Amino acid sequence: MMSSVKTDLEEMNRIGSAKMTTRRELYARLCLTRKYILRHFQSPIQLDELSKVAFLSKYHLLRTYKSVFGITPYQEVIKLRLARAKDLMRTGEKSLEEIAFEVGFSDRRSFTKAFKKETGQPPSCFRGGSLKVTKQCAGAAKVRLSPAPISND
């Protein structure tokens, strides 16, 4: 509990307002926005929606959210979606396409792109359900890391 209060105060102090009451109010709005994201990350979320939740302009929301939490609302949504996808891949038998839709991506391609950006590997390698897939993924990683052959021509 004490750690949570300390974290809240640290986050609130990142807001560049002179008045403490203004900082508290703005922090409360940002926390409402974050709670909204946590509840709705599996659905399409627009910046306009978040702006209305926070009663802030889009620009002010983006700027203050990032300064307080260290990431943008969009990055928060992607982070939550990917964490949920990893859980589903570890525990379930759903296809990657089903997982992509369930966690809120519009298609498997955008899911794969976001997953590779975060983890450095495609979701199929992360899942690694069979030895064959694991070997293919290990081979792909070696190919990417090896230098290009030198030609004597």
Task: Chart the SSEs and their pairings.
Elements: H1 2-13, H2 20-40, H3 47-54, H4 58-69, H5 73-91, H6 96-103, H7 108-119, H8 123-127, H9 131-145
Helix pairs in contact: 2-3, 5-6, 6-7
Structure description:
Helices cover 73% and strands 0% of the residues. By secondary structure, it is an all-alpha fold. It folds into two domains: 69 residues, no CATH class; 69 residues, Arc Repressor Mutant, subunit A. The radius of gyration is 20 Å and the shape is elongated. The C terminus is likely disordered.
Mean pLDDT: 81
Helix content: over 70%
- CA-to-CA gap between the ends? 68 Å
Query: So what's the overall shape?
Result: elongated
Number of helices: 9
Name the helix and strand elements from N-terminus to C-terminus, one letter apiece: HHHHHHHHH
Largest sheet: number of strands, sense, barrel closure: none
Radius of gyration: 20 Å
Features:
73% helix, 153 residues
Short description:
The protein is 73% helix and 0% strand.
